[in-house]
Specification:
Layout lengths: L3 E5 L4 H13 L4 E6 L4 H8 L5 E5 L14 H7 L2 E4 L10 H19 L7 E5 L10 E3 L13 H14 L6 E6 L1 E3 L14 H9 L6 E3 L8 E3 H13 L6 E5 L7 H13 L5 E3 L1 H8 L2 H7 L13 E3 L2 H8 L8 H15 L11
Parallel strand pairs: 1-2, 1-4, 2-3, 4-5, 5-7, 6-13, 7-11, 8-10, 9-12
Helix pairs in contact: 1-7, 4-5, 6-8, 8-12
């Protein structure tokens, strides 16, 4: 029986790239993409020449994922791997919207995968930031440690992961990526968020002297999307990946101050020359005209002072068997900055600032 992969989140950036990576690894496999009605036209354009792909319109927040009843028997007998990527990733998302997609949607997906008769693996994309406001070392087998959360994205992904982790009789792999940036070889990305807000901020400084923001002594965990793809494909098929949780994070991250300096030197050709307190920067970004001017989300400031350290020893150990390693940020940062420079005015890559 050939593998049939079902995926939510298509035609999102990572889902699209993951499809290519899976198709390359498994030439005999077929694919079913659960596509929200709002994304159907784009999905059709991208898969028009793909004979191995079938698009099904649905909605993860609905029972049976909003799929037609006549489709369910066939899916229950054919799906071998289910990849759940669909989520709202916006750091500034309102709670109700985040809960509906991230929590209720995951509950519906959990119910659906429980009806699949030949399921080999359920791969759930969580985030390292289910750690919330924890400090110190966070291990891969830890989840609920009484932590609080900086935003509704974190809290709803935490609630969703709890529900996935509670599943029984479902072979599951939970992945917790760090801050995902563009491809380490090409720099390509679909949105300028995360560390790209630093680049936006530096652009907004024009020719003024550039400050450091806060102390920045904490690790800032950045990983390129191609590492996430390689790791996901390997862990989804490795027996050692079943029923475990993995931090897809940098085992040797730079500090936030170092990352900030490296970006500034690459983008502006000089290092920051003075410092402003993090609380001052946060207060300024609380003013809507200020954050609109810089094109920076206020919520992004908190990740420059994130105090968690993500132990990823389980991921490193299993991925080592596939020759997969997270590249050093310094080796590919110039490519990220070059791609940003080339596409900084692309409106499709900008994040709407509330």
């Amino acid at each position: 029986m050939s593998n049939q992969y079902m995926m939510t989140g298509y035609p999102g950036f990572i889902a699209g790239l993951l499809f290519r990576a899976l198709a390359e690894r498994d030439p005999s496999a077929s694919f079913v993409f659960l596509v929200h009605p709002s994304q159907l036209e784009k999905a059709r354009e991208l898969t028009e020449a793909e004979e191995r792909v079938r698009l099904l319109v649905g909605d993860i927040t609905r029972e049976d994922l909003g799929l037609p009843a006549e489709e369910l028997p066939g899916l229950r007998e054919s799906i071998t791997h289910f990849f759940h990527l669909a989520a709202i990733y916006d750091l500034a998302v309102p709670r109700d919207a985040a809960y509906a997609v991230n929590v209720t949607g995951t509950e519906q997906v959990n119910r659906f995968v429980g009806t699949l008769n030949h399921l080999k693996r359920y791969i759930y994309f969580s985030t390292a930031y289910v750690s919330g406001d924890r400090t110190g070392i966070v291990k891969e087998d830890e989840l609920d440690c009484g932590q609080g959360f900086k935003n509704h994205y974190e809290s709803t992904k935490f609630e969703a992961e709890k529900r996935v982790a509670a599943l029984r009789d479902v072979p599951c792999t939970i992945l917790r990526p760090g801050v995902v940036v563009g491809d380490s070889q090409t720099g390509e990305t679909v949105k300028f968020d995360g560390p790209y807000f630093v680049m936006r901020f530096l652009d907004g400084m024009r020719n003024l002297p550039v400050p450091y923001v806060g102390k920045g002594n904490n690790p800032f965990n950045i990983v390129p999307v191609d590492y996430i793809l390689k790791a996901t494909v390997w862990l989804a098929h490795s027996e050692k990946g079943a029923n475990r949780t993995f931090h897809l994070t940098d085992p040797s991250p730079y500090t936030a101050r170092e990352v900030y300096r490296m970006i500034c030197e690459e983008l502006r050709g000089k290092a920051p020359s003075y410092s402003i307190p993090g609380k001052v920067a946060d207060g300024l970004m609380a003013i809507r005209p200020v954050r609109k001017f810089f094109d920076v989300e206020r919520e992004s400031i908190s990740y420059m002072s994130e105090q968690s350290e993500y132990d990823c020893s389980q991921a490193v150990s299993v991925l080592e068997e596939g020759g997969i390693h997270c590249p050093d940020l310094a080796s590919y940062l110039p490519k990220l900055v070059r791609y940003y420079k080339e596409h900084r005015e692309d409106p499709d890559k900008k994040i709407p600032i509330r």
